[in-house]
Amino acid sequence: MASPFQKRWVRVLAIVVAVLVAVVLVLSLVLDSLLTRRAQAEAAMLSQQLGRPVSVGRVSTSFLTGLGATVSGIEVGAAADEGVPLAQAKGVGIKVAALRALFSLGKDIVVRSVEVTQPVLNVVRLPDGSTNLERLQSRLTEQGRTKPSEPTSNEPKDLSAVRIDHAEVTDGRVRLVDRSTGQTRELGISDLDITVDDLRAGKPLDVVVKAALLTEKQNLELRLHTAPLPNTLQPTPERVVVKIQPVDLAPLGPFLPRDARLESGRLDADWTAELGAAVPGGKGPTQAKGGIHARGLRFAGTGASPVDLTVDTDLNGDVETGDLDIRTLAIALGQAGINGHGRVRNLASETPSIEGFEIVGHNLDPAVMARSFPALAKALKGQAAGPIGLTIRGAGTQAAPTLDLTLDFTPVRLAIPEQLTKAAGAPMTAVTHLQGAGKATYRFHADLDLAGADLRPGQLLDKPPGKPMALSLEGSASRGATTRVKLEQWTLRVLEDTVTGTASVELQGEGKRATTTFALDARAPKLDADALLLQTEGSRAQPPPADPHRFDGLRGKIHAEVASLVFHKVPWRSLLLDASMQDDLVKVDRLSMDAAGGQVRLDGTSARLGPVDKSWDLQLAVKGLDLAQTLTFGGRGKAFAGVFDGNIALAGKGTTLAAVEKTLDGKIQGNLRNGAFLGADLVSAVAGPLAKALPFATKALGETGRTPLGDDLGVALTVDNGVAKLAKPFTVQLPQAGITLGGGIGLSGTLALAGTVALTPATIKTLTGGRVTPPEPIPVALSLSGPAWAPQISGLDVTPAALTIARLAGASTLKSLFGQSDIGKAAAGALGGSGPAGTEQTQGEQKAQSEAEKLRQEAAEEARKRLQGLFGK
Question: Which residue from 101, 311, 445, 663 lies 20 to 30 Å from 678 (Cα-Cα)?
Fold first, then answer.
């Protein structure tokens, strides 16, 4: 018998348990109420987003049997005219290992089970031929256009903390309701069961799907087994099983997307595949046996006869050893097909054997196949027509057998917008020879001939049809923990130029830890970039992908040497490049080129390839460069001459001239020796109009077509938004004039300069035939615009200078006729005075003064008339 003490503790313990149970029940009720209200609020928000009612019945929690929650009465309702809800579920239940999640602070989340009970999806075809799912998709698409998109990252997430022991969908249904004919018909998929077991990192995943497809009993079974899942939980399939008992697909047709709506067709399948190392990340041998048959397919709107799409295989192989035994390989799509047979042993070794191996394609005409399959026609858009040749055959000698793969596009017409075109019959082939070279290693030789292709639609290469373009690759490839490809030699022949070199690539890791390491060496005796690159106003770079992380994990080095290069009609020599790449950042360790007696170096230049705007930083050192030969503004004309030494530091974004002009910033500093502006003779441009404005000009200056800039001119420019602005106006003193100019010049060579040309006294004396020698230079204002090699001179006003010279000419005429004393005497006589001796003027003196005054007045009147006729003054 229990003692009174023991009985008392039992009663206390019972009371404590009762209290705890009561507390748990109260907390459960309170939590249920809170979660229900929260779920219903979220459902209301989702209703606005979907444009249809969304409701949640109740959220119930449990503690005693493990932390869990059950949501009941879930429904996504019907929109106008649909009649039935889009989706329903009797309940969704979830159980979690709460204490483990709590004690690990969320780092170890184990979901014991997820159960979805009796879900129903109602797919309704409406009288206008659309479905409720298409309506929903259109609404979501429209909302996506109106809302600003948030930047996305392709970096895989680490989901290793998430584990699901078991998840299942039981007794699901997909009801297909056809209301387009005025008479409602219902059919669909019933008895749908989906089971997922052991979803966690480091473990294989098994998924089983069973359903009754358009029948009362289950007739469809899909099984998927994966390799152990990585931390991202992204599956790599290892085994796939598909079993479908014969079923008529025609009832499904009205509910499929518009470009895949069937009018007739039957489906059956019994196919098992052990994929192994044939898929990325997989391991082990590969097997495929059985068949999948879709017969008598005819799609709405094609008018084509029914066609069969069948796959029958009985083969096994091993990528690592290079084994492949094909007993049956038959893939057919209408009249097109691929058939194969034969055996390959130990291809990935030094002693392979090949027995009657052959894979051949026939009637692989995309245009013909597209006639029967609207989805294919939509994807092709008429870009390809004609039979593609495909053959893989064992070849070579018994001692050194090879596999030869040939793709022949010669009979095919291609018209791929903004990429290439090719007429049917124009040559275009790819041939690869493959043989063993040791364990898990293959040697290959590949040749690609693009002679028949026209690459000008890509607006990059000026490669018309009939001009040579061929790529040859020779090397080896091995596969293991690291995939390695080594090109012992590659040769690119395009037009009249040839580039050769070596290369290597190594692939390691998976997901965000994946890396690609490469090395590229390229050499060419000559390259004519002007002939290779398309030079048109429509040339443009293709818009880059929006993913800024597409270069993540990329590592590499580039070495290039070109003995002779022509670019924008400028001949360069001894181009040497050493660059490195890490992720999207490209750094130039060394880039040097010789031209026109000088050298250009771009050491330290860098660029980022990932962002859409493609930012870059240019560091340019120039020594002894002849500008007349190198600065030709894309070959459009020469504007400057002289030998330049200096440094250029520029930063910008983009790859097109229009984009760069808007973002370019930096500085240009240096010295120009024996420089000249080749666009115009600014002294003659001013002196010529001035000479025409003077009534007594006797000689014009000779036109040289250039303006000297002195023996040593300091250059200092600040680049802002694509315009190189002079840090301060520069002044050049020439024997004929002093020139002062300020302003800037655009990246494309457009001038925006203004200043003065001050003609020296000697120049004015020459223009006036010695009649006028001003005491100081006479300035004339002007502006320069337009292209630097053919500038427009505007704002030229010679009126002030002409009036000044005319006044000086009048004073000079009087001074030449009378000495200063004679003028004084004449002025005194005119006032009735006497000469210095107190005597009156003689008759001869009076006559000379009268004639001089007459000449002076005539000259002044003639000058006034000519100036008035020219300037309206």
Answer: 663
3-class DSSP state for residue 669?
A: strand
How many angstroms separate the CA atoms of 439 and 434, rounded? Answer: 14
- Chain Cα centroid distance, residue 19: 67
Q: What are phi and psi of 466, to 5 degrees?
A: 95, -20
Q: Are 70 and 90 in contact (CB under 8 A)?
A: no
> What residues does 285 pair with on adjacent strands?
none
Question: What is the rounded CA–CA span in Å between residue 587 and residue 607?
Answer: 7
The tokens for 764 are 């004015």
Helices 682-693 and 799-817 meet at what angle, rounded to 10? 60
Counting Cα atoms < 13 Å in the Cβ hemisphere of 493 gives 12
What the block records as the tokens of 685 is 């441009």
Among the listed residues 352, 370, 359, the one whose alpha carbon sits nearest the alpha carbon of residue 313: 359
> How would residue 543 be classed by pLDDT, with cut points 50, 70 and 90?
low
The Cβ of residue 35 has, within 10 Å, a number of other Cβ atoms equal to 17
The answer to whether the beta carbons of residues 56 and 45 sit under 8 Å apart is: no
Inter-residue contact 825 to 658 (CB < 8 Å): no
The tens digit of pLDDT for each residue in 233-275 reads 888 888 999 999 999 988 887 777 777 778 899 999 999 999 8
| Non-local CB neighbours of 346 within 8 Å, separated by 6+ positions | 321, 322, 323, 352, 353, 436
How is residue 796 annotated by DSSP?
-
Which residues are CB-contacts of 238 (< 8 A; sequence separation ≥ 6)? 204, 225, 226, 227, 274, 275, 276, 279, 282, 284
The answer for residues whose C-beta is within 8 angstroms of residue 597's C-beta and 6 or more apart is 624, 625, 626, 643
C-beta neighbour count of 866 within 10 angstroms: 17
| C-beta of residue 496 within 8 angstroms of C-beta of residue 525 | no
Helix, strand or coil for residue 678? Answer: coil
Q: What is the DSSP letter of 160?
A: T
pLDDT digits (tens, 9 = 90+) for 585-603: 999 999 999 887 788 898 9
- pLDDT tens digits along 798-810: 888 888 888 887 7
Burial 540-570 (b: 16+ CB within 10 A, else e): eeeeeeeebeebbbbebebbbebeebbbbeb
Alpha helices in 548-681 (DSSP H): 627-630, 657-663
Q: Are 781 and 797 in contact (CB under 8 A)?
A: yes
Reading phi first (left if > 0) and then psi (alpha if -120 to 50, else beta), residue 674 is in: left
pLDDT tens across 138-160, in order? 887 777 655 555 545 555 677 77
d(CA 826, CA 834): 10
Query: Cα 777 to chain center, whole Å?
Result: 57
Burial, 6: exposed, middle or buried (Cβ in 10 Å; 0-12, 13-18, 19+)? exposed
Q: How far apart are CA 262 and CA 514, in angstroms?
A: 42
The CA distance from 194 to 206, in Å, is: 11
The DSSP-derived string for 388-442 is PEEEEEEEE-SSSEEEEEEEE-TT-EEEETTTEEE-TTS--EEEEEEEE-STTEE
Distance from C-alpha of 237 to C-alpha of 758, rounded to nearest angstrom:
83
- Residues forming a β-bridge with 292: 269, 311
Distance CA 340, CA 328 (A): 7
Instruction: Give residue 825's Cα distance to chain centre.
Output: 90
Whether this prediction's pTM lies above 0.85 is answered by no
Rounded Cα gap, residues 731 and 733, in angstroms: 7
Distance separating alpha carbons of residues 117 and 170, to the nearest angstrom:
5
99 — pLDDT class (breaks 50, 70, 90): low
Is there a contact between 535 and 524 (Cβ–Cβ < 8 Å)?
no
